[in-house]
Design brief:
Layout (H helix, E strand, L loop, with lengths): L4 E4 L2 E4 L34 H5 L9 H31 L1
Antiparallel strand pairs: 1-2
């Protein structure tokens, strides 16, 4: 079954509402870009849906591992923010 749509804000927006459940893995293949040219050869934007979708289904691990990695990222970001706040406070005093 095929569905047609377009990219809006880096997300795929389908013309119709398919009866697909959340988490369903899909293939997305560009047939043209906004200028009407073939999507092939167009340099995708870092972090865009096109780049991210290349990796869909590749990471196969259990959800506990994903949760652990996300917690590590969160902790690292919080530590980085705390260090930045501390540095700014020390700079304001000096």
């Amino acid at each position: 079954m095929k569905y047609r749509g377009r990219i809006e804000g880096g997300l795929v927006v389908l013309d119709q509402s398919p009866s697909l459940r959340d988490g369903t893995i899909v293939d997305v293949e560009p047939i043209s870009n906004a200028a009407g040219n073939s999507g092939d050869g167009v340099q995708p934007t870092r972090g865009s849906a096109r780049v991210i979708l290349r990796h869909a289904g590749i990471w196969s691990t259990d959800s506990e591992e994903v949760d652990r990695l996300l917690a590590e990222i969160r902790d690292a970001k919080e530590a980085e923010l705390a260090a930045q706040i501390k540095s700014e406070k020390e700079g304001a005093r000096g």
